[in-house]
Amino acid sequence: xxCAFGPFTETLQGRVSPDGVAxxxxxxxxxxxxxxxxxxxxxxxxxxxxxxxPVVRSFxxxxxxxxxxxxALYFFPExxxxxxxxxxxGGLFVVITHDRNNMGELADLIRRTLMQQGDLPGGRLxxxxxxxxxxxxxxxxxxAPWFREVEMLDYRNTLVFPPSDIPQILRYIHFKSPFxxxxxxxxxxxxxxxxxxxxxxxxxxxxxxxxSKDDRIFRCRLPRPRKDGA
Length: 230
Known about the structure:
The chain is α/β, with parallel strands linked by helices and 230 residues long. The protein has helices at residues 32-41, 80-86, 104-116, 126-131, 139-143, 166-175, 177-181, 188-206, and strands at residues 21-25, 45-49, 64-70, 87-98, 147-155, 158-161, 209-212, 215-223. The chain contains eight helices and eight strands. Helix 2 (80-86) links the parallel strand 3 and strand 4. The protein is elongated, with a radius of gyration of 20 Å. The strands form three sheets. A four-stranded mixed beta sheet has the order 3-4-8-5. Strands 1-2 form a two-stranded parallel ribbon. Strands 6-7 form a two-stranded antiparallel sheet. Helices cover 33% and strands 24% of the residues.
């Protein structure tokens, strides 16, 4: 779910039956060919559904052995009961998500910059509210009503950027701009211009830019019958 161009699909090579079918669900039709190509590289038959997550409701009960959702469930946490419904009793649901302080240092900088410009009246970035819908902190509580076994694995990481990597950080901000700028009057070029000097000042003060990048993996087994779910 939220398969994008299939970066995690390739990791299934040699780990699942070659007779299996990888079904990718996303709302971006342009991801279809890259996803199917990733399936071919993994030695799997692929199928791409551009209808987005609502299509999951049309899948038969207990019809999937494995469901993956990487950095996307915070967009549609309401689908969790449907995942439990379509997963076979011995199946596995794997979710990867961020903690609420993911890239928090960068979020603080963007928030402060936008607030100084009067462009963030609510004081929170849209991406913060999105991630909070399914995060490392609340994921277990959202999954436990639907799965008898929920295992958690933490992946703690820190990204360190030297001065030469400022263009790379700005490209990342550009990539994330739909989340960062929703509800503001700023365009991507305007935000980039505002932040570039702030990033340069950060580098001059600290010598480099360090960003927290902590994630959590949930491995869910033993789906509960719908009547038992909360």
